[in-house]
Amino acid sequence: MNILMIYPKPDKFKKPRFGFSYDMMMISTILEKHHTVHIKDFSCEPFDLCDFLQYIHREDIDIALVECDSYALKRSQNILHAVELIDMLNPYVTTIAYGNYCYITKRNFGNANHTITENEIRNIIDCVNQFEDHNIVPCIKSYDELPYINRDLLLGIPYYQEYKKNTLLQTSKGCENTCIFCQRKGWQCSYVAHSDDYVLAEISDIKGRGYQNIWITDENFTFDLCRSKRLLKKILHMNLHETLQFFISSWVNIDEEFLDLAKKSNVRIISFGIESGNEKILQFYRKNINIGKVPSIIQYANSIGIFTVGNFIIGAPMETEETVSETFDLIRKCEFDQINIKNLDYMIGSALHTSLDDELKVADHIFACFENGLTSFKLNDIKTRKDAFLLEYYKSHRSVIEKKIERYGTPF
Questions:
Q1: Residues near 257 by Cβ (< 8 Å), separated by ≥ 6?
Q2: CATH T-level fold of 2-143
Q3: pLDDT tens digits, one per residue of 297-326
């Protein structure tokens, strides 16, 4: 069959940054062994209705799988365009909706002929197999049975051709942390990790294909700190770090030994989820970190040339001017190279969204603000405070960042 994988354009315009749907690529890689697979990624490709319909007819598409995402890529849902695409495709091809939004809501998506509501790749395989009597795709029984994604499938798209030295790698998925703002629990509650041999072999394959920058997509690469240290030691032993740079996300429950290994392994950027500088707010978020140890960890990473990103949230119900100042003071003390500050968002799939009153649950996400009765700050006040702080921070910190780049080079 001719199968078209589609990632719809985000609901809100976002400036494209490197990244692709790992799920879309994994499904494409599995299906292409038995079918002809085409990919359209409208998170970075322009969409033209006439051209798109001509493409459908020209390529004689049989099935279209439309990914209905929930904030994961480009930090925006793509539900509106997904609905439009399915409606326009239905007269011509069989449509299958899948993705995080479908797994969270557990209901049929729009007018799709089929909706996959469980985050199990075998369900997608079974759905496709019912339309083909001969080229039956075998079931995947374990995480290590998954193939390495075929990254070449993206190179026909100009955006990915431009960034062909960059790729993503998934060494684990899921997270067993308890953060109540995280919507990932809505589609992946359990934590599962590839074996060391699988990860090392895929890194070797990536290196052999000429990639230089590997963005590890794990929600928390250091969730199992012993495993992450072991992997870095093996990467060093096998010289896999030569010609490669790694970029990871982590919590701050790490130590200097890990950071030393990360530095030697060419980990260039670590993005830390910290959220607040106030202990009571962290307890409310059920963010299990020791805030007292955060500055020393970040400062040590900075001192050895690892570039650091700090991620924070403003808008908890007990947020005050004082707690906001505590968060800003922590950021200054740590001297991150980049700061992301977001308004607390009660997103569908999260424990926070579940706790909302019924009249607020009608929306897929609700910002914490005075207008919604969720915090004492008005929505515009939060934005104003955030923007003013970031302007002041980057102005005062510019010379520090410039010296770091001069000494260690740009991070990528």
A1: 229
A2: Rossmann fold (3.40.50)
A3: 999 999 999 999 999 999 999 999 999 999
